[in-house]
Amino acid sequence: MAKSRSSYVCQNCGAITQRWQGRCESCGEWNTIIEEAAALGIGGAAARRGGAGRPFPLEDLSGASRPELRVATGIAELDRVAGGGFVPGSATLIGGEPGIGKSTLLIQACAAVARAGGRAIYVSGEESTAQVRLRAARLGLADAPVQLAAQTLVEDIVATLGSGDAPRFVVIDSIQTMWSDAIESAPGTVSQVRGSAQALIRFAKSSGAALLLVGHVTKDGQIAGPRVVEHMVDAVFSFEGDGAHAFRLLRAAKNRFGATDEVGVFEMTGAGLAEVPNPSALFLAGRDGRASPGAAVFAGVEGARPLLVEIQALVAPTTLGTPRRAVVGWEPSRLAMVLAVLESHGGLKLGQYDIYLNVAGGLKVAEPAADLAAAAALVSSLTGAALPHDAVYFGEIALSGSVRAVAHTGLRLKEAAKLGFTTAFAPAPPRAEGESARIGAKPIASVASLVALIAAAGVEAKSVPRAAERARGGVTN
């Protein structure tokens, strides 16, 4: 008689319990636990235990190692995030919002690898081959020798990939649509996603193919399915952006073969995703030609790439009992800290004002070096004094009111000088490797000195029109 064992698995976090319960104790979600049974059959336990293992040779750290030849897609921004290309036998998980351009990017990468002579295979579990061909034709890739398939059964996919020459580049779109005959649950469940990913990764390791898995995301922006899949793969990429802006950002949250702080910038066009070699010019393209209060240019760094972006602030009197604090593109907790420091050490009273902060262009800034730029924009909006149009700001604000130095000062100033900026407000002294002669540095030691500097510039700017009016005889006193 067949013998079966059951377990209850949370479909949100993958936690396993021995009995059903309405609420998962690991993630706190309700009605996500589903029973999953595995039939062992007669002798199943013995088969699972297997026989005695075989010893294998061990190596030491001093052994010779050869560098891995990476699979270059020809898309520089994608290769940058991957660490110079994809390592053969690696598995990469790419997540992003629906319609952000994941499939577009990967079909372009497949076409580039296929045109370079490698065998590239694109397996779609959501679209038919006719639909994929329509997208390829729209992108001008119809002549690329990419091999297509519309299949969701993992066993059939692995058998097809293993036939003929070994593939060089494999895309699975998406892992949530894959399923296996060996698992008794519906596609998209934790067990199916985990088992399908394990089978595909095992094939990639044995064949040397660079495997890319597309992953759906939840409403919180996290990749759907069990977190164990993120541990199984070698790299996890996140494709970010929104429909209001044309640019897209590709970030690496995990990368065993490269840096995790690299970022690739793309622009969505009618012909697909185009690389943006100079993202700073893209983010600053909408700046006004004249200086206006509440706008400061932040010189940031994403990975090894400097990025200049405008931070906008609006400080307006409130009519509510509790002032509003709205922020887009920055951490709200970081804004609350900067406001507290401005009140405690800058002498500003912000409790009666609504405050709005926005990072122009839709970029999300997580770097502490943006503190000084945000503070400058807030003080400028409050006092009505416009900041210098040719100046950049960067520096980390401490709770004591001091401004601390940040890394990659040379990169920031070099990028600022390249785009025509002549002044940098930063912690003292901002040492730029070879850029000190091209851009002037004005040290900012504390928040109090920043407030005093902006206020003095505002008083001077207001006194100039009055002096001119007196010279014309318009003012007698």
Segments where pLDDT lies below 50 for 5+ residues?
39-48, 432-437
pLDDT averaged residue by residue: 85
Please give the share of residues in helix. Answer: 25-40%
Distance between the termini: 107 Å
Strand-pairing-aware structural class: alpha/beta
| Helix segment tally | 12
Summary?
Helices cover 29% and strands 24% of the residues. It has 477 residues and is an alpha/beta fold. Strand 13 and strand 14 form a beta hairpin.
Describe the 3D structure.
The chain is of the alpha/beta class and 477 residues long. It contains 12 helices and 21 strands. The chain has helices at residues 44-49, 76-82, 102-115, 129-138, 154-162, 190-207, 228-232, 279-283, 332-345, 371-383, 409-418, 447-471, and strands at residues 4-10, 16-17, 33-39, 91-96, 120-124, 147-150, 169-173, 210-215, 235-240, 247-255, 263-269, 272-275, 295-302, 305-317, 325-328, 353-359, 391-393, 396-397, 403-404, 423-426, 440-443. The strands form 4 sheets. A 9-stranded mixed β-sheet has the order 6-5-7-8-4-9-10-11-12. A 7-stranded mixed β-sheet has the order 15-16-14-13-17-20-21. It has a 3-stranded antiparallel β-sheet with strand order 2-1-3, with no helix packed on it. α5 (154-162) runs parallel beside α6 and α10 packs parallel to α12 (447-471). The N and C termini lie far apart (107 Å).
What's the helix and strand layout?
Elements: E1 4-10, E2 16-17, E3 33-39, H1 44-49, H2 76-82, E4 91-96, H3 102-115, E5 120-124, H4 129-138, E6 147-150, H5 154-162, E7 169-173, H6 190-207, E8 210-215, H7 228-232, E9 235-240, E10 247-255, E11 263-269, E12 272-275, H8 279-283, E13 295-302, E14 305-317, E15 325-328, H9 332-345, E16 353-359, H10 371-383, E17 391-393, E18 396-397, E19 403-404, H11 409-418, E20 423-426, E21 440-443, H12 447-471
Parallel strand pairs: 4-8, 4-9, 5-6, 5-7, 7-8, 13-17, 15-16, 17-20, 20-21
Antiparallel strand pairs: 1-2, 1-3, 9-10, 10-11, 11-12, 13-14, 14-16, 18-19
